[in-house]
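Hey, I'm writing a tutorial for new members on how sequence and structure tokens pair up, and I'd like a real worked example in the thread rather than a made-up one. If someone can provide the structure for the chain below, I'll link this post from the tutorial.
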Amino acid sequence: TPASVARSLQVNLHGEAVGELRQGIRTVPIWLRGRDRGGLEPGDASRHELRAADGGKVSLAQIGRLAVEYEEPVIMRYNRERFLPVVANIRSGQPNSVTDEVWEAAAGLREELPPGYRIDIGGSVEKSGKANASLSALQPVMVALMLIFVMLQMRSFRGTFMVVATAPLGLIGAVAALLLFNQPFGFVALLGLIGLAGILMRNTLILAQQVEDNRADGMDGAEAVIEATVRRARPVILTALAAVFAFVPLTLDGFWGPMAYVLIGGLAVGTAITLLFVPALYALWYRLPPLAR
């Protein structure tokens, strides 16, 4: 049978473990090998003799035609399809940009491939794309929940819009930090932007709630905005500084580094802009009268 022929060749060409020998606390495998294992080449396999069922010997040349061919010792599959990986290390640059350049350079090669063959992008770029796709699938639900919680806190569409309008302010510092330190904008950087938007909106909620409390205590509109900004500026700034310094060690990490730079740059610039933008937006949005002199 093909199985018996394959096993016989395996024993002669390589050997096969048939048992174990225990020596104290060690276990030594017992190997069965052919006598001419060292001198038998693949091209000479036709003279290899097999033991037939009746006890006689039969050479391989008597039961089939032998041909020596070269093939991959391991057949690799990805998504149930055979594939041949091409791996390279990047000397300089970012994976996304380098992959785009290689993809454009291989345009002619892709056109010359025979039917049934194709080139796909893998590695970190593929993983980042899958992560972004999974994140995008949940994004509508997360945005809806965020709006619901902000609405419950502000209790008005006008206040909700004001809070959401401060979320993009962190992009200024985040983009500047990524460009300054030559960091890629990938999945982890996107996670940092999402967290940054939440932090800035939280600061806006704190400031807006303080303004509402001041107005409830009888302060005029403009005076309530100024007093709330002065009172909440120190805790907001100190919290942002603590977060910035906490993320500094993370910048040394090769994977989480982009997220750390996004949060550091976004918090540093976004917090400063928020303390100036939110009071002005609140006064403009609620049409507060100017402070009397």
